[in-house]
Amino acid sequence: MKKRINVLILCLYDAAGIPSKLNFFLNYYPQYFKSDILYYSSHGYQYNLYNSIDDINIDIIKKKIEWADAFLFELVGLDHPAYRLYDLDFKRELHGKKVFFYSLCSPYIWDIDATLDFIVKHNVYVIPAFYEETRHYNNAVKQVYLPYPILNKELLYYKNRDGKESRSIKLFHSPTNEMLKNSHIFLKTAIELRKRHPNIELIYNRGLTYRENMRSLSSADIVYDEMWVMSLWGQSGIEATALGKPVLVYLSEESQIYWQKVCGTNVLPFVLCEPQNLKRKLIELIESEELRKYYGERSKHWFWEHWSGEKTARRYYNAICEMEPFKK
Question: 24: buried, middle or exposed (CB in 10 Å: 19+, 13-18, 0-12)?
Fold first, then answer.
């Protein structure tokens, strides 16, 4: 029987979504993990979720580290204000533990060299969430490519939930970052296509909650998502594959390699497109129900084969087991 891994997540950035979801995901598979999470933010006083970094209880953290087998830092570099925690020096408590960062988001790191020096010196691993962040890393930085955690239970709730017959073709896009996602190109193209295909219904989700977004996604016929920048910005695209939707994406050659590593397979389910041929690709899908069904079935099969919850949990478990321990 496998030994269960105790994981402690320390959230130091001002957004709780990613570490909260990872904590919930790991605890959903008790045969592999027992997970706990501590929130500390430089702006923590603004949120009920967080403890302020000025109110850190050192003894609590040290006890939690002692309990943990693996320790995850969330999203920031050594120079972020929250990394005043390093002044408290947990190197003795961390010695022998498996330690890793869930991404080093380059926009938030002012001194990438100091951060990377720390990582290499102390045997810390990185799970890249940016394809572009990997450009900062040399061969000495130990990287582990793992998928964003998505619970099967969540997906099954929304699968085919809409269930209504509709004569319209629903095009879905969620513009997390409109500039980086080229949302304006998709929006302009979709509006142009409406003149030729008046049955097109555009679902352009901005500022919705996760549940509202998923309800819209479950009713879509075609999904467009931009996934070349950051894996988290491809979340809607991945969830759409699980729901059996054809997903159009732009992936550069470098980002295709990144996604193949994250997914653990060279086969990707997306309908690849570029700004120059987006209109043609959309027309092909809009005008052919058979093509939409083909890509939808391919998407669904791929997700449950490569990204489903149990398999993702095993990949996290195996990756942590194979990590070398932190050294002082």
Answer: middle
Residue among 29, 31, 33, 30 nearest 8 (CA) = 33
For residue 128, which of 109, 142, 115, 118 has the smallest C-alpha distance?
A: 142
C-alpha distance from residue 124 to each of 62, 80, 94, 95, 102 (Å): 18, 18, 11, 11, 11
Q: Are 313 and 25 in contact (CB under 8 A)?
A: yes
Both tokens assigned to 184: 């304006």
Query: Tens of pLDDT along 125-141?
Result: 988 876 767 777 778 88
Angle between helix 235-242 and 289-306 (nearest 10): 100
| R_g over Cα of the chain | 21
Only one residue has tokens 């998709």, namely: 186
Residue 176: pLDDT above 90? no
Q: Are the beta carbons of 45 and 52 closer than 8 angstroms?
A: yes
3-state helix, strand, coil in the chain (%, to 5): 45, 15, 35
Question: Quick check: pTM over 0.90?
Answer: no
Helix (H, G, I), strand (E, B) or coil at 201: strand
Instruction: Please list, residue by residue across 32-67, b when 16 or more beta carbons sit within 10 angstroms of its beta carbon and e when fewer do.
Output: bbbbebbbbbbebeeeeebbebeebeeeebeebbee
Structure tokens at 253: 């050659």
Give the whole-number percent of the chain exceeding pLDDT 70: 76
Residue pLDDT, tens place only, 294-309: 999 999 999 988 888 8
